[in-house]
Queue: 3 jobs
Job 1
Amino acid sequence: MSNSKFIRIPDPHLRGSRTNYDDEDDDDEDDDIEAMISKERAKIHEEHAESTELTGERYKRSNKPKRRIELSLTVIHHTDTPCVLFVGCEPPIDPVRLTLSYLDQIKQTGSAQTRSVQRLEPIYDTCIAALPELLILGEKIFKEKLGGVDADAKPQVSYKILSRIRNCTKLTSAKIIEELPRKVPPSHRVSLTNPDIVILVIAYKSVAGIGIAPRFEELKKYNVSQLVDVPDLDLDQGGRSRSRVTNAVVAQSTSDASFGGND
C-alpha cells in the first residue's frame, strides 16, 4: 500500500449549506435578543406605570383636605389633690357668667346633667399664692369689675370675702380677710349677713385666684347638689326634688374617684 495523502476539497454545497445554517442561527439569536429587549422594555414600562400610579395615589392622599382642628375654649387641669379639678376658660368665655348661666339652667330644667360635681368656684384670674401678688391681682380685678378705687360710676354693692385654701401654707384666711378689703373701692361696703356679691379667694398649692360671685346665697353658695335638690316653685314641679350636678371653672366632686369634695 502506497502512502497517499488525502486532500480535502471543500464542497461548495456543503460549505454553502453550513453558511446557511450559521446565518439562520444568527437570525434566531437576533430574534431572541430583540424579543428579550422588547420584553424587558415592556417590563420597565409596566413597573414605571405602577410606580407613577402609586406616586399619584400618594399625592392624592397627601392633598386631601385636611380636617379642621377645633380649638377648645375650655381646658381641664387635673390636680394631685383628690376631688379638686380646675377648668381653664379661654376668652371670650367669662367664668362667672358661665357658672351663673349653668346654675340658672339647673333652676329652670331641674337637671344638672352630671353626677360628679358638687360645687363651682369661678375665678377671674390667678397668681402666685403669696399675699403681695394676691393683693395686686385683687386691685386689678376690683378696678375692672367694681370700678376702681375712686369709682363712682359703678353702683354701690355690699360684699364679703370668702377664702378656700387647699394644700397651701403661704396664705391664711385671716390674713386675706384683713388685707384684701383695702383693695376694694371704698364706695362698696362690707356685709357679712346678706351681701350682694361674694369675693371668692381660692388657693391651691402655689396658685391663687380671685372671683366675684353674685347671687351667692340665692344659688346655694354655688353648691350644685344642694341647688338640684331644692324644688323650684315657679316651675310648678309639685315639690319634685331633683338630683344631679355638673362642672364649670373650679369644681368640687362628691366622688373620690373624680375631682371635687367637701369643705
Note: The chain has a mean pLDDT of 73.
Job 2
Amino acid sequence: MELELRFFNVDPSQILGIAKGLRYLHDHQPPVYHGDVKGFNVLISDEGQPLLTGFSLSFLVNSAFDLPVEVPSGGTLPWMAPERFGIDSDASGVTPEADVWAFGMTALELFTRRTPFHGLNHVRVISRIMKGLLPDLPEAESTYSRLTEKWWQICSLCWKYDPSQRPTMLQIVEMIVDAESHTKGDTESRMEESLTENRATLPSHSRSSLSIRSLFRRK
C-alpha cells in the first residue's frame, strides 16, 4: 500500500534536528544505530523539535527472491541502503552508513511529502537500488522550491553506493548548516532587492517617512 505523507510545510530546520539526533546516537559511547530512519519514525514535540522513535533490532528472511535475502524486519525497503539486503557485502545489519543512506531518503521524503521511489512496488525498488539507480530530482514545484541544489547534493552524498564514501552524520550536520545559511542569505538579499524596487516607485517626498511594515500594507 503506497502511503503519501501530508507534510505540507516542511521546515528544513526540523530535518537538521533529525540529523543532529542521529549524530548524537552515532557519537554516543557505545554507539547507537537507528536502523529504520523514515518520516513516520519522527515525532514532533510541542516545542517543534523532532524526536526519533521506531528503532530496528530484529531480522527476517524475505521470501520474494529466488535466493533468500536477509533484511532487518524493522527496516523499510524504500529507505534501505543496498548493503542491508545482504547481497553485496557482509554489512547486512544496522550500521551508521545505512542510517546515513536512510537519512538522505527521509530528507527527500519530507521535502516531497512522498515515500522514496513513489509508485514502485518493493521488487522494483530493490531492483533500482541494486542497479545503482537513485531517485530522480523532483520538480521545484513539488517541493515548494525548498529542495535547493545544496540540499540535493547532501541527499546524493548520502546515497553513495559504497558505504565508505558516504559522509558521517557530523559532516551532514555541518553541510546542512552551511546550506541553510546560504538559503537564508539569498532570501534576505531577495527581500532587500524587493524593498529597494518598491521604494524606487514611491514619490520622493514620501520615501523618508515610509516604514518597512507599511510597504506590506500598501494596496
Note: Residues 12-182 form a domain with the Transferase(Phosphotransferase); domain 1 fold (CATH 1.10.510.10).
Job 3
Amino acid sequence: MIEQTGTTTIGRYELVRELGRGAMGQVYLAYDPHLNRQVAIKVIIESGSDDAYFWKAFQREAKLIGSLRHPNILTVYDFGSANGQAYLVMEYVDG
C-alpha cells in the first residue's frame, strides 16, 4: 500500500499522519509537493484495484464525486492506485 522511502508516500503524496480509519479504509493527512498544499488521502482497504471491474467502477465514481461543487462537500483532487490499493485525494479541512 505505502512505499517506505525515508518519508512515507503514496504516489507523489507524502503522508504526514493517520487521521482515522473505518471499515472501508484509512484516511491520512498528506502533503502534495507539486501544489504545495495539505490534502487528505483515503486509502481503500482490500479494494482489489487490480481487478478491472472494480477499477472501472472506482474511476467512474471518483470522477463523478470530483465533478461535484458544493460548500458542504469536500473537493476530490485526484485518485489512483498504489501497490494494489485504490486511493482518493481530497481537500483537507482541519477539524
Note: The radius of gyration is 13 Å.
